Amino acid sequence: MDKILVHGGRPLSGSVRISGSKNSALPILAASLLTRDRCVIHCVPDLSDIHYMLQILSHLGAHVERASGTVIIQAEKISTVAPYEIVRKMRASVCVLGPLLGRHREAKVSLPGGCVIGDRPIDLHLRGFRALNAACRVEAGDVKVFADELRGSTVDLEGKQGPTVLGTDNVMMAATLAEGVTVIEGAAAEPEVVDLAHFLIKMGAKIEGAGTRRITIEGVKELHGAEHSVIPDRIEAGTFLVAAALAGTEVTLRRVNSDHLKAVLNSLTDAGFRMDVQRDQITVHGNGSPRPLELITEPYPGFPTDMQAQMCALLSRANGVSRATETVFPQRFMHVSELKRMGADIELDGATAIIRGPSQLSGAPVMASDLRASAALVLAGLVANGLTEVNRVYHIDRGYESIDEKLAGLGAHIERVKDRSH
Ligand code: UD1
User: Fold this and answer.
1) Percent of the chain having pLDDT more than 90?
2) Which of these, 68, 178, 272, 401, could form a disulfide with 19 (CB 3.0-4.6 Å)?
3) What is the pLDDT of residues 19-47, one digit of tens each?
4) Which residues form the domain of 103?
């Protein structure tokens, strides 16, 4: 398994280009199953999660071509069964259910397992499909959904933990080809849901309200091919903002959408960082010594759960006591024990991390446990004394395009050690 080695203490400066959004690209690629026509998708990041999705689409029978950031998909004739061997690698594979149900009125997809950030059920997805008149069964590790007729209706997708992003995507995709009107109440309002809705509208879908808590979809008979560019990745951008705040002198992020980053920008401003914010570009003036913060993760437009781990790394350097509370994934604190091994003073109280700073971090061998936790460890390594060795970096490769090369481009002393054992 590859490792990333970070030698701490090098200041970051210069500029970095943010890639297309992973969480937008995944459902958009799946949505191309809704038509027999060719779909052309630009700004698709080169990540292992994207490779898994393209493998699933190919397995289902779609013709997939990829040239740098552009993916061309034609799903002329497809099957409706996605088996465990290819689905197990990525939880987001569940988002082929909606398009398959919409187009063929049936789908059988292996259930994604839990993951280290907690139990990740799909009950809300199924609630939405049932509201569209589909039957749903979980048998032998597979989820099977089928309907003689898909009929629009009103469904509330809000769960105990708030709205569901992929659940909203799934039901919205199925509803584009249902009879009549579907209203999703309690819909997720994340920019990635809006990006998917824009793509579906280009394909001929009739959708209103994406980006609000109520989405209305009027079913159409069929969808056609479309061309689309995926939005910039707000979590990759947020991660580089934190890297720059922690270890930067002056760092500029290019190809961002600052409107999508308001909660993160507000927190960094509260922490005392100066930023020049333009619509598609942000310059951060780092100083490495933030003020302590009280953070609460919430659905969009609140502070994103996908930025919580990185902020814990930043706040370990703050002068005083900070708190980071998870409301979206209450168990998402796998990074805490590894950050503590690097010298951070963090105590967990239920779904709140209490971070006492400032700590001088020291490099250590650490283990990446999930995607964003691994990013937090790399960021901590940038300001730690000595060498941080981040193991199991396949987690980071799921969601960050060339993070080592991008940080090296900003002046970090970072290298990837390839595993040559197989
Ligand atoms: C997506 C993002 C992920 C992000 C998360 C929350 C993708 C590929 N992934 O994940 O990076 O951290 O949104 O912003 O876009 N829940 C249920 N039942 C369900 C579905 C979800 O109880 O049927 C719960 C989850 O356990 C969690 C909360 O709802 O506590 C939000 O999860 P959800 O928005 O569905 O996350 P994903 O869409 O899987």
Assistant:
1) 88
2) 401
3) 999 999 999 999 999 999 999 999 999 99
4) 22-229
How many domains, the chain?
Answer: 2
Ligand 1 atom with the smallest distance to the CA of 190 is 14
Residue of 44, 160, 328, 400 best suited for mutating to test ligand 1, as the one with most atoms within 8 Å of CB: 328
> How far, in Å, from the CA of 329 to the mean position of ligand 1?
8
Q: Report the CATH number at residue 183.
A: 3.65.10.10
Minimal-distance CA residue to ligand 1 atom 20: 122
Kindly name the residue from 39, 95, 115, 136 that is annotated as catalytic: 115
Ligand 1, atom nearest to 160 Cα = 22
Q: Do 60 and 201 belong to one domain?
A: yes
Last residue of a domain, one of 195, 229, 263: 229
275 and 215 in a single domain? The answer is no
305 C-beta closer than 6 A to ligand 1:
yes
Residues 144 and 182 in one domain: yes
State the SS3 of the chain: CCEEEEECCCCEEEEEECCECHHHHHHHHHHHHHCCCEEEEECCCCCHHHHHHHHHHHHCCCEEEEECCEEEEECCCCCCEECHHHHCCCHHHHHHHHHHHHHHCEEEEECCCCECCECCCCHHHHHHHHHCCCEEEEECCEEEEECCCCECCEEECCECCECCHHHHHHHHHHHCCCECEEEEECCCCCHHHHHHHHHHHHCCCEEECECECEEEEECCCCCCCCEEECCECHHHHHHHHHHHHHHEEEEEEECCCHHHHHHHHHHHHHCCCEEEECCCEEEEECCCCCCCCEEEECCCCCECHHHHHHHHHHHCCCCEEEEEECCCCCCCCHHHHHHHHCCCEEEEECCEEEEEECCCCECCEEECCCHHHHHHHHHHHHHCECEEEEECCHHHHHHCCCHHHHHHHCCCEEEEECCCCC
- Which of 194, 229, 264 terminates a domain? The answer is 229
Instruction: Tell me how far the alpha carbon of residue 171 lies from the centroid of ligand 1, in angstroms.
Output: 14
Q: Quote the pLDDT of residue 288.
A: 75
Does 184 share its domain with 325?
A: no
- In this structure, the answer to whether residues 204 and 252 fall within a common structural domain is no
Q: Supply the pLDDT for residue 162.
A: 95
Of ligand 1's listed atoms, the one at least distance from the Cα of 371 is: 11
pTM score: 0.97
Residue with the smallest CA separation from ligand 1 atom 1 is 165
Residue 115 falls in the annotated catalytic set: yes
